[in-house]
Amino acid sequence: MDKSWMTMGKTTDGRLSQPYIEGVNAFINFARAIVDLSDNILCPCIHCVNCYRQSLHTVRIHLLHYRIMQSYINWYNHGESHVLNENIHDNEMSDGDHTDGIDALVGDRIREELRNATEDEKVCHFDKLEKDAKRELYPSCTDYSILKFVIKMLNVKVMTNLSNKRVDMMLELFIKVLPKGNLVPRSTYEAKKILHDLSMSYEHIDACKNDCALFWKENENLDKCPVCEVPRYKDTRVQGKKIPHKVLCYFSLTPRLRRLYMSSQRAKDMRWYIDKRVDDGIMRHPVDSEEWKEFDLQHLDFALEPRNVRLGLAIDGFNPFGNLNNNYSMWPVIFIPYNLPPWLVMKESYFMLSLLILGPHQPGNEIDIYLNPLVDELKELWEEGVETYDAYSKEHFQMRATLLWTIHDYPGFGNVSGWRTKDYHSCYTCNDEPYSEALVSKIGFINH
């Protein structure tokens, strides 16, 4: 399809020209095939930048009034297939949703191993990861490698809550059904062992059942809470492995941030807000906010390195069992790296789970106890940083990170910040001199 008309939209006269108008009409006709249930499509004008859905009529008006994005040559959001090419502009790059990402995952891990390991370890890790990523599950199998099969199988195990014994039985069946010479692992243990080198693990930290303290650092070897002296384990009389009352799942943030720079394309995307952002006074991304700009003025040493990471922190709780079990709470703590461009920053694949707080009841105001490991890591990333390899510029740099925003509802705001969210002093703008009045069964804050 002829797309030369796209370059004519830079001027008003160009947008009023017959070739440009015909090109817009051709684009609208092409995009009709992928309208949603409301007959809307993503608008590729320079204001909506494929972030907002509009009607076909509105999209046509936007393209004639504002112009189409010059870099949107591959219309992958409107029906064209993705083009995977390092030379294509950022907007055209795939965000990874159309593939399983196995090859990229292995490639990232190999790059890290080659940088950190000794020469012998380099060869060992490289060979193992590369072979697992490329070895056919059985002779002439084109769809699944052994690594892809293991990841998919363990994902099914987690999503359907299968026991190890059931998975072992399924693997045994696969071994018998598939052609001879297949590489299906013989047990769940063997399957997990294959994934071990990808370093996707997390740390279990025991916690007091009353949310008083973590059995971590100086408390790691204690059998009773140092605050309330409640036993650490449910049954202290059993021998062998004991079951703690509460457990915190801690996913270290640092290796996940470093992983963003192991891919040359993602490392390039992490500089988008410096290299490609259009500063025209329109708010399209947090980088356009006054808070971001004020932070840069106050911390020039941080701002001078564009690869330093700006983070948002989202916290909320939910019951994973719906109404079937009211005595259980799950609180995920998720990071969002805001260096990424608008079309990637809020993608699920870039959300970084850092903490998973599990237990029979929500942590409430004691959530700060569970945030301690995360606070220590954030302090280290802010003060010292960590050496990171940038695959785009082919160099090492000292990556630092800062937390700019927290995202939560109003009760969560009270838990995280310690601010009052009830009664006459719940307005944090008024502080200790609130403009509040008692209404019928409510408190109203006036003069806002």
UniProtKB/TrEMBL annotation:
InterPro entries the UniProt entry points to: Transpos_assoc (IPR029480), Transposase_21 (IPR004242)
Domain Transposase-associated: residue ranges: 3-80
A Pfam family annotated for this UniProt entry: Transpos_assoc
Name of the featured protein: Transposase-associated domain-containing protein
